[in-house]
Write a structure and sequence with these properties.
Layout lengths: L3 E7 L6 H10 L5 E6 L5 H7 L3 E5 L5 H14 L4 E6 L9 H9 L5 E12 L3 H18 L11 E4 H6 L9 H11 L4 E9 L2 H6 L3 H17 L1
Parallel strand pairs: 1-2, 1-4, 2-3, 5-7
Antiparallel strand pairs: 4-6, 5-6
């Protein structure tokens, strides 16, 4: 049986982290790694009480750095499949099974969740437009076709996790992962997933303007090389 680990990058998520962990356990996922990326609230304390692995950055380094820390730790613990999952309650843990299934069947190295193949409930129209533009930017930069370039719900086989090198500490890591998939010729597919845009998630998440700025930053880096 393949060992499945769930990696959660968390920054000031005391309001939701406990519920997210409980929901993961309810659906049978017990190898849970919470990477507290320099939170100033009780994220770590709450996670520790839930009896999961808790790793802590002393300062806020960014989601990319937190995921790298969690993925490296999962590999050390013998993970066969690593799922990256958000801490704000936007994703449904019951959907992990369909995200990991293509890897369990040994058909793919990486599975990417797509809200645009599935459901993006209550997504603001400006955010939707910017995310759609992000798909175009990623194709222009890296030549990889996806429908959702900024989705944090993904699964990596052990082989993929060992070969994908996350070097960008912050939100650029999402595009970097796609670049690595293309560069390393990893087999990938997308599956439909649900993203719930609650008031809390919208407040905590990346704004549409930040997403736009991120895309421009990625383009500029490519052009200036």
């Amino acid at each position: 049986m393949k060992r499945i680990f769930v990696v959660i990058a968390a920054y000031n998520e005391q309001k939701t982290i406990g519920k997210v962990i409980m929901d993961l356990r309810k659906n049978g996922y017990n190898n849970i790694i919470v990477v507290d990326d320099g939170s100033k609230d009780k994220t770590s304390q709450i996670a520790l009480k839930k009896n999961v692995f808790v790793l802590r950055h002393k300062i806020n380094l960014g989601q990319g750095a937190a995921l790298k820390t969690g993925i490296d730790f999962a590999l050390e613990k013998g993970a066969d499949i690593i799922v990256t999952f958000d801490a704000d309650g936007q994703f449904l843990s019951k959907e992990i099974q369909k995200v990991i299934l293509p890897i369990k069947k040994d058909k793919y190295d990486v599975v990417l969740g797509s809200r645009f193949l599935g459901t993006a409930k209550n997504i603001p129209i400006l955010k939707k437009i910017v995310l759609k533009l992000g798909v175009v930017v990623v194709y222009m930069l890296y030549g990889i076709k996806v429908t959702d370039s900024q989705n944090g719900f993904r699964a990596l086989s052990r082989y993929a996790a060992e070969n994908i090198e996350i070097q960008n500490n912050r939100m650029e890591h999402a595009g970097e992962i796609l670049h690595q998939i293309k560069k390393k010729k990893l087999k990938f597919c997308e599956v439909p997933i649900t993203v719930l845009y609650s008031e809390y998630a919208l407040k905590k998440g990346q704004s549409w303007s930040n997403s736009f700025n991120l895309g421009m930053k990625m383009l500029w880096k490519k052009i200036s090389r």
